Amino acid sequence: MRAHPGRIATHLIVPHELPEDLAGKGEILLDPRGELHHRYGARSACLYVVRPDGYIGFRSQPPDADALRSYFTRIFL
């Protein structure tokens, strides 16, 4: 999130081997047993914001960049 440098850490969680086109694209975590995907109900591509207190602040399935920007605009006012 370029609009909020230093305030947001991004992580990509993939269930299997990392596709080559994603190499070098930031923090990437592998979830080969699907534990995180199962815990968060992620059955297909999705986007979550996990707040520092561990609660889900935002989610969209499929990922919706405009809705995410709107969420951050509201919370960072």
TrEMBL record:
Instruction: State the Gene Ontology terms under molecular function.
Output: oxidoreductase activity
Entry keywords, A to Z: Oxidoreductase
Keyword Zinc listed? The answer is no
User: What is the protein's given name?
Assistant: Phenol hydroxylase-like C-terminal dimerisation domain-containing protein
InterPro entries, from UniProt? Phe_hydrox_C_dim_dom, PHOX_C_sf, Thioredoxin-like_sf
Q: Name one Pfam family in it.
A: Phe_hydrox_dim
Which ranges carry the Phenol hydroxylase-like C-terminal dimerisation domain?
33-76
